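Sequence in, structure out.
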Amino acid sequence: MKSSKRMLALAGGIAALALLSGCASGGSGSNGGKVDQLTFWLSTSTAQEKGYQNLADSYEKESGVSVKIVNLPYDGLQTKLRESAQANSLPDVVRAAGIDPIWTGKTVDLASIVDDDANKIDQDIIAKDKDGKITSIPSDVTAAGLFVNKSLFDKAGVSYPTDPSKAWTWDEFLQKADQVKEKTGAKYDLVFDSSPSRLRAYMFTKGTDFMQQEEDGSFPTDSKTVKALQDFADMNDDKTMPKSVWTSGQDPNALFKSGQVVAYFSGVWQSSDFASNITDFDWASAATPADPTHATEINYGGNIVGFENSDTRGAAAKKFIAYMYDPTNYAKLVTTNGFLPVESGLDITYPFESQAAKDSFALYQKEIEAAAPISSSYAKESARWGVEGKELGTDPTTAEVGKLINGQQSAKQTLETITKYYEDHVG
């Protein structure tokens, strides 16, 4: 905060937050030590806000405590949280995109909710600090996976696996995709999100320890990892995959929707979009290639955090979060919002009209169950970095892999640049 202009901007933001947050930090929602209203910040679609509003309504009926939901723009939520932490004006509960070091010291410990066996929360996706404190619980999980143009496969008379136990290798997938392309006149075998997350999924399926941090903070690599990265780059040859996605930002979603691409490697969030917006051909989810590892990239749809604005408000926030993760209540939230759950053993029937979407979500649940533990490593590590006060900043992976695809550097040089950046920022 070195300039007066930045100070004025911050002051303005804090003033706006004071109006926005209402009862945050023990405002009008407290009555003689009793909390009668909580504030819950999130950023989500109108459709998914419904699940949280239903939860809030049922909580008020049961407890007498109302929950004021404030749905903020995605790009602004993290900034507003930072500003509110500096102004001691945090909400009681938030569904945050990530863990920010500026406010982790102000959070409620959620360990008792996670450790409650009745909740059956997946321990593999939970990050604890060195003292066992749990800053957040994922609201839901996302996973990377493979979509296919079912119409093209059917036209070519080629089948595809829909069970992780019968997954292709990448070579087997590419052979089948080539057959489909040749028989149908499609333009590309595959498009692949230009995302570090999707690259991690690919590298994990190839059996590598890609970007796994050692206790000394380093991110070692080996020849197997170098080869796998080179294999990925080689697929970007404007025949198997278009170079333009990773090198110049062309939209892979739009390419797949054009009907000229055999398959698309993205994630579960595409299922609802495809169900609503693909009308010119049939699509389906297929098992992610395992070569040799059954893996994906499991990440958090959001991070549920409670803030210790006072002893009373912190306890009230934790009580609401515990109510959220009660299996009966959580199952309703997951069903309404179309989430992949963080709890096992739930009875979930998604209200999708599209059979392709229903089948897709069922397959993603199987993929997560079959996935090797490394699949959730980045989500856990990034949460830990936040708790420890470390910030990664802008991940260089996409830009550096783009240079590799363009022939500007080797796979070894690409990995060295990426790992150095990680070591400098979170090592």
